[in-house]
Structures are given as C-alpha cells and as structure tokens.
Amino acid sequence: MRIIRFRFLVLRGLGIGVAESIDLPWQTALDFANKINAVTPEQIQSAAQKYLMPERLTIAELKPLMQDQRSQYPDDQQGSNLGNNNAN
Prior knowledge:
Number of strands: 0
Largest sheet: none
Structural class: mainly alpha
C-alpha cells in the first residue's frame, strides 16, 4: 500500500510540475483526473462521430528494420529520421 501511495504522490507531483512548466496554474493538474473521469461514453461517441470520418482515414504499416538494414542510415542509428525529408 505504501508503494501505491508513493507512486500516486510522485505522479501528482509530476502533473503539478508539468502544469507549472507550461504556465498553467498548479491546480489544473489536480482537476485533470476529475475532468477526465467526468467524460461520459456519450460524449466520447459524439466526438468520435465528429472527428473520425472515413474520408480522413490514414492507415500506416510500420515495420521494424532488420539489423542489416540499419547500416543504410548511418546518420541516425535509432531510425528516428527515416522518411523525414527535412533531416540533415
């Protein structure tokens, strides 16, 4: 039980820090969970119908590179810039 309480306090502290770092009142972090929990299934359904439209659908298939393929991208060992035409 102590670990769970500690984790809760750490996460709450992080939330307060994040709110303050983006110039929001620290109370925003405390209210966030209550606001999220207040969202109803009907509200989620309404938002989905409004914003998730078939004509806006994008499908992406992501495949990890095999070890030997990674050597093709020496400037980016992690593959994070693959497909980014603006990369150096």
